[in-house]
Structures
1.
Amino acid sequence: MSEQEDQEAPKQFTFGTVGFDARFPNTNQTKHCFQSYIDYFRCIKAKGEDFVPCKQFWHAYQSLCPMEWVERWDEQRENGTFPAPI
């Protein structure tokens, strides 16, 4: 192998998901998904988008929630019809 080929070696992908949350011990993570979505937007509303602990909720709902749900919830938030207070 040439030196250039060594430098262009692809980076290894690391797959990660949200860790265990004792509030949601069952295998069905629907409630965890929804609660993480709500918690994220409550957190950034209270502390701002740059508040690092809010990212934990973001990672959780991005990992657990189907994107179709997130898109629908985003639309509902924009329209003021989201079913939970944020």
Note: The two ends are 56 Å apart (CA to CA).
2.
Amino acid sequence: MSTAKLEDSTQRPLYGERIIEESKIICFDNPNKKRIYEISIQLPEFTCKCPFSGYPDFAKLNITYQPNLKVYELKSLKLYINNFRDIKISHEEVVNRIMDDLVNEGLPHWIHLNAAFNPRGNVSMQLDIFSGQKRN
């Protein structure tokens, strides 16, 4: 492969980058609307950038929710989460934005988002956000 061809392929967004950039949360119909149940999703490789330093921040996201009429499609959720990797955003803002999007798209009965950020500079941070009313 020539150097010119290699340089050319790195200048435009690659197909994976385009898919991530265009991603949005997709939901499908809850297969059992009559039953109250919980779904837990782990996303252990979340990244965004610190808005002050530009350094990467890493976190494990845990989503637990009780679906109402819709259920989150996992691949779309993964791609949506990957879209934050190059965005300079605070921990508080990104977790609230993700929660807003989850609530607006899925309309769950109840949802809990936990974000456990890896330590940086000897400081770690964990955020927990809840929305809705948990049902028994």
Note: The two ends are 61 Å apart (CA to CA).
3.
Amino acid sequence: MKRMFISTILILAGLYIMGYPKIIEIFHEQHQQKLIEEWEDSLSIIDHGYMEDEEDIGDIIETQNVNYQEENPTVGQDLVEIEVEAIDEEKKNEKDVYLQSIQMINWNGEMEAIKKAEDLTKNAKTNMEKVAAIYNYIIKNISYDTKKANIINRKSNYIPDIDKIFEAQIGICYDYASLFAAMLRSQGIPTKLVMGYNQDINEYHAWNEVYIEEIDQWVIIDTTYDAGINNMEKVSMIKDAKEYKPEKSY
């Protein structure tokens, strides 16, 4: 009887030892699952609360926007106008660069050429009329200096002198372009002095690009070229950009 009892105890102990790891594993799995469920429930509560808050905030913002728009009905238009004005101001500043007196277009109000520009344009009503008046004066009165052209090349340090050009009434393409630019700039018309090549001229050449306010566009004008053929045929003051290859502009 005693042996039987001991055997039973040993069998039960063996079964316990063999089953203990499995029991522990099941317990941990159940406990872990419970923790996961509790965590998901807590997230659900947090998400729900957050969404309610977000909707409330959205309603508040929308209400504030509606109220602000009602109190300031032109605010959007004002912003657009400010942006457009900023762009226009930037464009204006870019053009202002081509109104200044610089080394190769050195002018001031006391020069005879500038006084002449003022006289030529006194009755003009538009910038185009001012440009045409000064253009016609130059191509009819300034002659091309072939001798000077043979002496001066593109690599020289030659700088046009507005006073001397106007007084002598003769010059090379660089002189024409510098004089024309100075006279136009003095009248508030943005003008570039451009250097490069013309398809009909073999040598390095100079001409102008002039901003015409009425058409909001830069146009090419070549007083040297037109002065050379002025007495031979009628020419267009505004040139085709395809005929020119600019390399530098001032």
Note: Strands lie at 143-144, 170-171, 191-198, 205-212, 217-221, 238-239, 244-249.
